[in-house]
Write the structure tokens for this entry.
Amino acid sequence: MAIPRPDHTRTPQDLEDVYSRLKHLNSKVRNLSSPRTHLHRTSKTSVADRPDTDVQNLSLEQMRDKLKVINQYLRKKLAPEVVAVAKETVTEEVPDQIMPEPDGMAPTLSEEKTTSISLPSAGEPQEKKAPERLGVGLDLGTAYLVASREVEGSRVFVKTERNAFLSVRADNATKELLEKLRIKYASLGNNMFVLGNLALNLANIFNREVQRSMSVGILNPSESESIPIIKLIVQNILWPARREGEICCFSIPANPIDRNQDTIYHRGVFEGILRTLGFHPIVIDEGYAVVLSELEYKDFTGIGVSCGGGMVNVCAAYRSVPVLSFSITRGGDWIDKSAATVLNIPVSQATTIKEQGMNLKSPKSREEEAIAIYYRNYIRYFLESMAQVFGNSKEPLQFRDPIDIVFAGGSSLVGNFLDVVKEELINVRLGFRVGEIKKSDEPFTSVTRGCLFHAINTEETNSYR
């Protein structure tokens, strides 16, 4: 159903009124651009360094042009987004507020996306809609959190939220401005934070670095607010449990081969968060989740590779039994940081350039070319790491048939990703016969669908009780 758009035509008197309000709003925006944390600006991008005359001396026609740009920007950023899916896609209204935390955190104006997709089927499709089964899937990604649950039989609703936040000035003027612009935020003690996608947008506007509650697949130890912020995002993205103790299966990274890191603390924190929300938590390796969501056609036999923001997770499975799982501590964040360093731009800007849509084999700017160079190096690195692990494994993959490899995750969404993988794979010996090399039809939701599939199966078999 089409959503009616508001009429953006303006009378001269309207423009005069907006002209006056915009001057007042400009003063508030300049205050917002000077939060408690130190800002790194350049002379070209700084807002606070611009004189007031930049706004006050604008003609009515110039003001009209600026308002047009602002309207287009806000309409694009505040409109509900929908992940493209092969089947019917629907948008579900999400409540504006969630239950406040005891410590006073109160986010507003959720922006999560909802889509309709399908899980692997357990048999022939039924004509009648089956009741939804218990179980929730949660992809705890470094860059995004993605939740899923089944409704009306085989249909699955998915909600996403960027795993990011940005500290802003904690005063009433800032709070009023954020509420007026419908930007969700959280209060924690004497600090205020903008959450989700708009944190990245504001970071770009003010030439700042976005803050992350997770780094390299696990909780970020350099951010003291990581746990309360991530708890808030998880609470906001999940549905209420359908019954006390409903299973929520969440993804964790496998042990990395190139870094000394464990997931014990990370796992324990999220188990505690989910229990307080009324769920029974179970975990699954991220790569194995890709196997469950993508390799049904091969009897769940093959290799699933999740290319996320913080890591690459790999799992080889035989008939749904994981044989070998590991991770590599390079991901989309490594690409963004590396490109930002050589380009001398903020990391958030490199992230935006990458996510706006580019092609690895035909970059259109100096920035895209730098990103493409690091992308190819990233692909070569994880393929060589895979070859090293499979070649040195005490239990080599001795399957009779060639093994299919399926790629998923947000970092695989870039244009010509699979072509570059195939080009680099020519120079790498994985130690087994490779069958089809493919990318998930829905790379962004692959992990959460695998988590949901595991949660539903566990609920039905009662194997966790």
Notes: Residues 115-121+128-163+212-461 form a domain with the Nucleotidyltransferase; domain 5 fold (CATH 3.30.420.40).
